[in-house]
What we know:
Layout: E1 5-12, E2 19-26, E3 46-52, H1 58-66, H2 69-72, E4 78-85, H3 91-98, E5 103-105, E6 119-123, H4 131-136, E7 141-145, E8 153-154, H5 157-163, E9 168-175, E10 186-193, H6 200-220, H7 222-227, E11 239-240, H8 257-267, E12 273-277, E13 280-287, H9 290-296, E14 311-314, E15 319-324, E16 327-336, E17 338-341, H10 342-350
Parallel strand pairs: 3-4, 3-6, 4-5, 6-7, 8-11
Antiparallel strand pairs: 1-2, 7-9, 9-10, 12-13, 13-16, 14-15, 15-16, 16-17
Amino acid sequence: MWAIRSARIPIHSGHTSCFYWLTVQFGASSTLTNHGGVTKDTVPSYRVLFFGNADFAVESLKALADCMASNSGSKGLVDTLDVVTSNKNTPVRKIAGERNLTVYYWPNLPSLNDGKYKIGIVVAFGHLIQKRVISALPSGVLNVHPSLLPRWRGAAPIVHALLNGDKTTGVSVTKILPRKMDIGPVLLSRMYEIHQNCMHRELRDSLARIGADLLIQTLRRLPELEEIKTEQDQLCVTYASKVDAKMARIDWTAHTCKVIYRMHQAFGDTFNLRSLWRRQHVRLLDMLSPENMTQMQVVLPDGKTYLPGTPYYDKESHILCIKCVDGWVGFRNITIKKTMTASAFNNGYLTKDWNKDVRFENFESSKTNYPQVDKLSKVGQSHL
């Protein structure tokens, strides 16, 4: 019979001189549960208070609910499961309703002094857990974080991993300490390779599934993992600040093709890439990868200088090409008043005489004085 053994393996970050320690397990046993580490006869049972809001937290909440005794027909890993979320519209609130779980709305919490809960679990919650809450829970509070800490502490680790062009990321399960986010010791982690054209939603969902699995493993092996926990290396800390739609704005005079594509990976299925056309906000959709642009071999007319922001419609591929600082980027669709194909944008905008020399602009340089064209008042708002 094989026995479960844990080991810490150093993984180079690929970005600095830092190494991240991954706690992994070796071996298997026929007497172990699916998630390993303890026998069925010694499985712990937790009274859990779950804190979560966003989509990333949903898989972890489902995994905990699936481990409740009422669902397994025998002693469950989870004896009690109540939920704290911010409001009635969060993804976590929806799942809690589907699973008939008791829900509390932050900052209103249930009583913590009567021993009802043994442990707190935080996943994509976005609020600091007070010291009094941590102290009231005998097993403390765990956090499931979508990065290999200490890289990308903070609110938006997935976005920053994509913006930075990271080749790998992962999930870390840590103990929460008072006063600051994501500073606690790492109990368990797993690395994940980011494929070349990975988008934010795909990466988030993949890491959410990994996080749910690691969470259950951590609960089953908590005493063991607390003995071999790894303190975070302060020299390797990077921060993932909150994001907003302004970060999706393209600077045609500064951003390269590679940078714009990374922005598309990070924001293309949330905020969408943003620019200006005749002072109107536009969203650029369905961007082609740099590799696809190279394979297309778009042929541009000779004898003309193309300034950053210059649009060009390629009739062969039906792609809207836009000049940036070091080349051309391509989009299949655009939203300007309404969403339309690149072909429709060409027919409705680029082929009009009054748009002949108009370029896409940066937001900070949007005070261009366009020549007044009398015909504009006659063509309808959808063509402005």
